[in-house]
Amino acid sequence: MRIEATHSEGNGTVLDKIGDIILHHVSNSEYPIVQLPTMFGINFSITKHVLMLWVTATIVFTVFFLASKIYRRERYPVPTGLMNALESIVEYLRNQVVIPNVGKEFSKVWAPLILTLFFFILTANGLGLVPLFDLIPGGSTATGNFNVTAGLATVTFFSIIVAGSLKYRFLGYWKNMAPKGLPFMVYFILIPIEIVAMFVKPFALTLRLAANMTGGHIAILSIMSFIFIFGGMFGAGAGISVGALVSVPLAVGVSALEIIIVFIQAYVFTLLTAIFIGMAIHPHH
Amino acid sequence: MDPEKNRQNFLSQVFRLLIKNVTQAGPYITASYTLIGSVLLLTLLGYFADRWLGSSPILMIIGTILGLVVGLYEIARVVFKK
What ipTM was reported for this prediction? Predict the structure, then answer.
């Protein structure tokens, strides 16, 4: 949070400004870091969330490149250090998430995508909790932006269709959408519902991840803003005591909760992607 | 057993329990968010279709009802699954 921005003159101004400051912190800023021209109706400017996406991608790529380097050389068959840590996560996700949901037949096709989604979301969520990135012009959680999560959910949406089409051919996948052997009239209701549900599932993914990441940050910022509200209304002493007794302990608690949420949301997104792909491959089992 | 190893065991047990619970809750998480998502998505679609066609508020109401139907159907599918 930009604390210097809250140093205002009167009571009203502190209260007026806090909403804006919180919004400024969690939303993609209107003033991009690098202004680029609009092409084909799309604004290509580099905003803080775009920057954070690049940072995330770079970190994930570097870590895995370094970890897999030794495997590619095939000199040490026993994993050590970083390799060991990553290998256990990869193996766990493959055995507990991909294979039970997607099935062994297609596990090698979908495990790379599901693992990539997991590590990318986990890193992006985690970077949002690192205060250091606040020093770059307004770095923040990229996955707290609905556009980012919508992009990730679009990947899931097309993977579901591709997964079904790979197994049953394109037409067979669409035939599998509704269960067989129902009265003819029921299909008039069921098919539109299934088609809407097809779009709703990725939309729910988008909503959950972005809302959870943004919600945690707004909670922390609101709790911390009590200091400035009480300070502005009843003097510096009240602000300091509210900060010491209420805001800081509460914010520490919410931050601890956020560390768990960062992990759970990445895992849930991954798990649900695997479940949806599995549902396309094994319909109505 | 030395305390350091005991602590690690405790942490890994807690972690495994958390993952197990999240995994079991997976379908229900989907269902609950599908209800919110479908109502929100279809209401918004109805709202913008209304603005485009100038037929406010008919399409928005239809969208809300359809969203509820889709959401409840998805919940029923999870709950009544054998």
Answer: 0.78
